Amino acid sequence: MTEYVTSALFVYTDETNHLVDPLQNNSLGTPITSVAFDALMQAPQQQLEGAGHVVVAGPIDVLKEILRLAVQYRFSIGIIPTKKQKHLIKFYDLPKNPSAAVELALRRDGQAIDLITCNGEIMLFKAAIGRIPFLDTPAKASRVRVLVNALKKFVRFKLHTFKFKTAGKKEIETAASGCMLLQHSRGSFAARLIAHDHSFTDGMISLVISAPISIMEYVTLLRQALRSSKRFKQLPSSIGYIKSPQIDIESENRLAVIIDDKRTTHTPLHCKAIANAVHVNVGNNLRTESISAKDAKERIDIENLPREKELVKAKKQKRIPFFSYASEERFYDLFPALREDARIGSIYIVLMVLSTMLAAVGLYLNSASVIIGAMLLAPLMAPIVSLSMGILRGNIELFKSSIGKIILGIFIALFSSALITSLFPHKPVTEEMLARLNPTLLDLAVAIISGIAAACSKSFKEIIQSLAGVAIAVALVPPLAVAGIGIGRLDFYFFYQAFLLFSTNLVGIIISATFTFRVLGFSAVVRSKRSLVIVFAFLVLIAIPLYLSYSRIVEDRIFEQSLRRERFLVNQKYIIIVKASIIWRGDNRIILMDVLAREPLTRKDLNAFKKKIQANFNKKLIIRLNTYYIP
Amino acid sequence: MKNVVHLLILVLFVFCLGACDPESAITPSGKTIKVGIIGPFSGPVFSYGEEGVKGIRIAIQLQPYLQDGSRIELVEADNQNDPAMTVKLLEKLVEKDNVAAVITFSSSKPVLAMAKVADEYQTPILAALATHPDITKHNEFVTQLVFDDDTQGIVAALFVRDDLLIDTVAVFNNPDSAYSSHLAAEFERKFKSIGGEITDTISITEETADLSNIVKRVHVRSPELLYLPIKVKDVLRVIREVRKLDWEPKIMGADGLISTMLSQHEEDLDLVDGMLATDIMAHGMPLTPIGERARKLFRNQYEETRTVYAALGAEAYMILFDAMNRCSDPADRYCINRQIRSTTNFTGIIGNMTIGPNGKTQRPLCITSIEGGRSKFIFKVY
User: Fold this and answer.
1) In the CATH hierarchy, which top-level class contains the domain B32-147+286-363?
2) Distance from CA of A565 to the nearest CA of B (A)
3) Architecture of the CATH domain A121-277+284-316
4) By percentage, how much of chain A surpasses pLDDT 70?
5) A285: which strand partners?
6) Contacts of B105 (CB under 8 A, 6+ apart)
7) Topology alike, domains B32-147+286-363 and B150-284+368-381
8) CA dist A22 to A29, A31, A32, A321, Å?
9) What letters, b where the CB count within 10 A reaches 16 and e where it falls short, cover A262-272?
10) Chain A 596-625, residues with CB within 8 Å of chain B CB atoms
11) Does residue A52 contact residue A75 with C-beta atoms inside 8 Å?
12) How far apart are CA A245 and CA A167, in angstroms?
């Protein structure tokens, strides 16, 4: 059974004096004494002494003043909102209907709520400091509005250094674009982030800190804001959260503080929550959400905020960088694993020997399935991923150990396949081998995609690492085995071509994995310039022969393609080129062609054909023809 | 040290300027050498001359002065593609205008007329379009810059037989045209020699009235391809009759057909969609670096490249220019002629060309088709 107050004082302003009559003639029969706010403030003690309940209708500033008086004179409050006060209606779950609002305002069972003050100013809903992308966007805002808000906030976006101090004497120094203090969880994107852990009866202040350290992080946060319409189970990657009865905020530069949409004060800011300070008649929905101040505990969730070296870097930057960066501490489980991957172990040696021996046998058998089996065994992914991370982070120790492991693997592979070759009495050149002697750009594409997959598999646990390992092995094991076969055959051309393909693919994988790690935010906070120069020089050295061979490959492929659209009339005989491919033996460029002809081609015809090719394409070529005759 | 670096940069810059633009080193002498242009600038095939001269003007912009600083001055003469008028104009250009060489955009018949008197005038004549094989016979001064009809007929027959794998063909020819008769005959000869069957050989002229019945008669024997080395207007008449029968054979024409269609019969392009032809070049085929420069200039000045005549005009000028530069006196007709006929591996618009002492040019030709209102490159035949 609902109980109502036996008498009440109604405080109104010029905008709400029309409510005096309806309230005095309320259907509940409660006696009401009305007083204008200005008159009340001239002699508050006289008016409020002994007043048990005050009903207020007026702007937010008036409400805040009544709340302050309520703490002093110990009366409860009923609120009658105007139609325009949508925020107030939402935050206190008040009825929009005036008679229902009067009914709620005159109830006896007011809810004890906390009162938060910041630098002496009452904070009713929220306070914002600095730039807080999306956090102050209304929770139910359209996606377009969220996007527009995000773009607006992005202009001159930078991180400031902040120092937060809690009631439990914890001090947190970090860098953030801004932060937001909240009274309770209704109405904004920030409130949605912490809705599971927040109430206006818990005697706590909630502080949400926004710290996107890069444009990529900012975009990720935007994506999360646009995608998620429900409450967040965990904080997004660039958001921190502190809950405490008292929070002190200091910033390197003095920043304005906007309390309840009004620029009121500036940092340093001292905020405290007075638990159960006043009784306010709120809607039923809010009563069910309340948490007792006894149950609430201080909480500090700052894992996602910049710290230590990251903080130093954030301080130096005028604008946030495009890609994210991170200190080693942030990935505390990843780096020991990478160091372990870069260490040479007996299993690595055994698997390397077995995989290349198997690949060599598969190549001699011209059997794709055996070669695939060799790829499944190859243990090359781990050191390559470690090397990529070493390059990205300028970690010389990781770089040295992983490159040492890779070089050892290469020697083992070359030796094993050379040994197999020398043991074989017959050494046929199979199609599977030839395919590795004439690398195409598609081979490089395989390598680059494998590198991306490897980096992703290390970063996302959902990707099975062995699958990415096989992808890498596709690009590396067969050419390495063919290079070893070349050594076994004492054929330098064999070795050179296959090893070139292997080197191209290896560099492709390393560069793509490095870049992928960079995109995923694994860059070091502070990179050693010296190590970067060494790595860069290393890559340039490898890139020179690769570039030279690459341009030759491209030229050859263009020539091959063009030949397929050519016909030759030689001594009145029509020659159709069906297939053309160029291979190199030392300095000799050999063109292998499948041609169609109606009449038998004599030596004279072939000489004329060769002359025509050389005259029109300016190329010194050795021509090998397979002639198919048209019936 | 800084000054030395600056000096080196300056030297490199000057060197680069010289290396990048060798023409700029030539000082104009103020001397001009006249070159005659004979071609139809009016009449039914006016586009031969009009487009050809556009190509020459583009080539002049690329190569404005000879090595000795002389400038080439063009003297144009409209022969309306008439043989008798052509001979008179040749006489006038040589004796009155004192030209050092003549470039002609006439078809085979007027050039054959010129060939008969070429030795009399002792002036090099570059036939840019004429394909009849006899234009270089019995004279020392006519040089044929395109492939001849023997080659064209053979390539067409081999392409039809070996690439399209077609067994039966009906051949149309125009008995009034030396070009058409010869080309059709050469195609027939080669096609039969490689096992193909000629179902019909039809002679048609502008006066042929009963074309509908002729085409119906051809249709009875169901040839897979119609070979039409005839005038464009007659090609269109034949195709209209073919379409009336709801018949869809493959159709192949000869050089210049697609260019004339594009420049003079744009409204009928739908009718010839899918038609094949042998030609000098086609839209979308790779060009040489000088060819690319010429195309860019042409597009800037004339909006779009529509015909091969312009390309052939540019090539004729470039070959003449090259020959003149190799003579101590670039106006010496004998020397020019000798040098033209010893051109080896000359880079033209679409590829390399070699001209033999007999005045014949070895150069690739291509198989093209008309698709979507433009010529499409299919194959190049060397």
Assistant:
1) alpha beta
2) 5
3) Sandwich (2.60)
4) 81
5) none
6) B37, B38, B39, B40, B48, B49, B52, B53, B128, B129, B309, B312, B313
7) yes
8) 11, 12, 10, 60
9) eebbebebbbb
10) 596, 598, 612-613, 615-616
11) yes
12) 6
pLDDT < 50 regions, chain A: none
* Cα distance between residue B272 and residue B252, in whole Å: 10
CATH node for A564-629: 3.30.300
B223-276 pLDDT tens trace:
999 999 998 889 999 999 999 888 989 999 988 788 778 777 878 888 888 899
> What integer pLDDT is reported at residue A564 of this predicted model?
77
What is the distance between the alpha carbons of residues A137 and A189, in angstroms, rounded to a whole number? 6
Radius of gyration of chain B (CA): 23
Q: Where are the domains of chain B?
A: 32-147+286-363, 150-284+368-381
Type of residue at B102: V
How far apart (Å, rounded) are the C-alpha atoms in residues A182 and A125?
A: 6
Supply A451's token pair.
């590198």
pLDDT at B124 over 90: yes
Which one-letter DSSP state was computed for residue B267? Answer: G
Rounded to whole angstroms, how far apart are CA atoms A210 and A159?
A: 9
How would you label A379-414 residue by residue, b for 16+ Cβ within 10 Å and e otherwise?
bbbbbbbbbbbbbbbbbeebbebbbebbeebbebbb
Q: Which residues have C-beta within 8 Å of that of residue B107, sequence separation ≥ 6?
A: B45, B48, B81, B129, B130, B179
A562 — contact with chain B (CB < 8 Å)? Answer: yes
Task: Decide if B336 contacts B223 (C-beta within 8 A).
Answer: no
Query: Number of H helices and number of E strands within chain A?
Result: 22, 23
The C-alpha of B193 sits at a distance from chain A's nearest C-alpha, in angstroms, of 11
CB-based contacts of A106, cutoff 8 Å, min separation 6: A4, A5, A8, A26, A28, A30, A53, A55, A78, A281
Architecture of domain A8-109: 3-Layer(aba) Sandwich (3.40)
Report chain A residues whose CB lies below 8 A from the CB of B163: 567, 576
Q: Tokens 């002792």 appear where?
A: B122
Measured between CB atoms, does A629 come within 8 Å of chain B?
Answer: no
Task: Map out the domains of chain A as residue ranges.
Answer: 8-109, 121-277+284-316, 328-553, 564-629
Instruction: Compute the radius of gyration of chain A from its Cα atoms.
Output: 38
Closest CA to A198 of A301, A128, A267: A301
The residue with tokens 């979507």 is: B372
pTM more than 0.80? no
Q: Two tokens at B46?
A: 């006016």
Angle at A279 between CA A276 and CA A285, to 5 degrees: 95
Q: Which fold has domain B150-284+368-381?
A: Rossmann fold (3.40.50)
Cβ neighbourhood burial of B164 (10 Å; 0-12, 13-18, 19+): middle
Going by DSSP bridges, is the β-strand pair A53-57/A32-36 parallel, antiparallel, or unpaired?
A: unpaired
pLDDT grade for B18, boundaries at 50, 70 and 90: very low
Q: Which of B162, B164, B192, B344 to mutate to test the interface with A (most CBs of A within 10 A)?
A: B162
**What local confidence, expressed as pLDDT, does residue B40 receive?**
93
Cα A87 to Cα A183: distance, rounded to the nearest angstrom: 13
- Token pair 């942030």 is found at A330
Task: Specify whether the CB–CB gap between A208 and A180 falls below 8 A.
Answer: yes
Average predicted confidence (pLDDT) for chain B: 86
CB contact under 8 A, B381 and A576: no
Distance from C-alpha of A572 to C-alpha of A556, rounded to nearest angstrom: 28
Q: Which two tokens stand for residue A186?
A: 């209704």
Helices B257-264 + B232-244 axis angle, to 10: 90
Q: Helices A529-563 and A492-519: crossing angle, nearest 10°?
A: 120
Kindly state whether A631 is in contact with chain B, defined as any CB-CB distance less than 8 angstroms: no
